[in-house]
Amino acid sequence: MANDSKTWRCGKYELSFDRPRIMGVLNVTPDSMSDGGEHFDQDAAIEYGLAMLDAGADIIDVGGESTRPGFTPVNPDEEARRVLPVVRALAKEGAIVSIDTRHVAVAKAAVRCGASIVNDVTGFTDPKMVEFVKTSTCGVIVMHAGEVAAPARTHATVQLDTSAAAFVAEKAREAAVEAAREAEKPARRRRGKLLGEPKVEAKLPGGVVQPSLPLGESEPAPESESEKPAAEQAAPAAAAPETVPAAAEAAPEPSDHLAAMMRRSARREEAYVPTSQLRRFTLPDSAPIMRRVMGFLSDQARTLIHAGVSRDRICIDPGSGFGKTANEDIVIQRETAKMASLGYPLMCAVSRKRFVGAVSGVTQAAARDAATFGVCLGAIQAGANIVRVHDVAGFAQFLNGYWAVAEPQPRRAFVAVGSNLGHRCDNIRAARNMIAEIPLTCVSNSSKIYESEPAYETRQDAFANAVIEIKTELAPLVLLDELMKIEAELGRDRSKKAKANGPRTIDLDLLWMDGETHGGQKLRLPHPLIGERDFVLVPLEDLMHDPARFFRYNGVEVKEPEDRVGHIVGELGRM
Description:
The chain has helices spanning 42-55, 76-92, 104-112, 127-134, 164-184, 230-233, 257-270, 286-307, 326-334, 336-340, 354-360, 369-382, 392-406, 424-435, 476-489, 534-540, 547-553; strands at residues 7-10, 13-16, 21-27, 59-63, 96-100, 117-120, 139-143, 189-190, 193-194, 203-204, 208-209, 314-317, 347-348, 386-389, 411-419, 441-446, 449-452, 463-472, 507-513, 568-573. The chain has 575 residues and is an alpha/beta fold. α2 (76-92) links the parallel β4 and β5 (96-100). The longest helix is centred in the middle third of the chain and has 22 residues, at 286-307. It is elongated and about 105 Å long.
């Protein structure tokens, strides 16, 4: 289950997993699987990213290159042009931004613009990418992109013909096909090593050898006439007039290894392979699949650690849909607990994937959200810590409902209360009583009520202020909605004509919540202005020892008393 002791350090942020974290997918591309083109415009992408934060996303994963089956590779300059303005705008709003890229130049630029995570679809098999992340403090996501089983062989249809010419032609074709197959086979294992695999020249600091990308066999180079198999050169004239059926003509493979692997994966998924014997089991054996996936993830994590990346910066992702059939993806998802036992934060990135459509019977990718939620729930129950989804609002609602019933989890939070209209102290006490009535929430302590100078908008009456300590099982955004309902009930004016920092009957600010970091326009946690507000820090001294030190430890800049705003000028009594 996700409420474990793992933490994930991502730059200046630290994510805890006392509850699952939601990563929202933001594709700034014209050709992604289910939302291609919807957020290709940068302004639309920024607006959508902020909306996902306000809907419950903890992380926004920004990508500028589609990696769907049959994708067209994008050069780093174009990818950077797409994503950097979006990364910069979201990071400015306090978001934890992940850059989904396999290009070192794009990762470097995105981190400079405020990204806190590098999500490398090729699993940090590029030594240059490893060299970069070891010099930064960003979080890293190691993903397995590769085929986990040898592609199934297709069987040619046998036709009987008694003519000698047809017999000779058929034999020649068979010889040519067999020679081509032999050329494509990986070399046999000799003394524990695979001959024919690309040699790895790059070594990382400390003598660590960088493993090769798990994308299956490299694409063969075009052959010259002299290098073609002899059987093909010596094919009898009887075979020459025959034409290759249109269905058998293979499209040229892209030179990009990832694109080639994804194209092979799509063909393997769609191909119908006749067989003379029924399978005994519904799914392939999990052992060889998991040895390959978990072996790669473990090896790459160790490579990063040996290079100088601290263990608590590393997250792993088995790479659903990347080089894997529906059956293989289901096997991997069923082994989530084994992957979680590796000890790294574990990503479940199955949103709208082909295997989700296969198990749910839903053809359209964009219509697979409900099935995605079901797969994600199974992964969370088995130990997944982060779920990467397209429909953030729907999944946040789904998760909040499930978590409230399945995982009792009271957490401490602080709410600042202020009033400078009407009976100020009575307003604060009424708000305290109403907070105690919020579902799954109780008031555990309250500060004294203090009088303070007005802050920001100085031409108004003095404020009465207090801080209330609560325990709650609600998600932060759900709790914030409840606080805003209390404000409305007590007469808070939030219309456009009201001044942003002007007079108010009641003002409720969620300051801090145990284990929560959040960005966006609706809610920021910790509250970004805690450190400069005397009317918050002084009441907090009634509830904790040295609040300034506490918030500095949690990454909040706290100013000295003389540099703060809204200074306390007196006490108005107890709550």
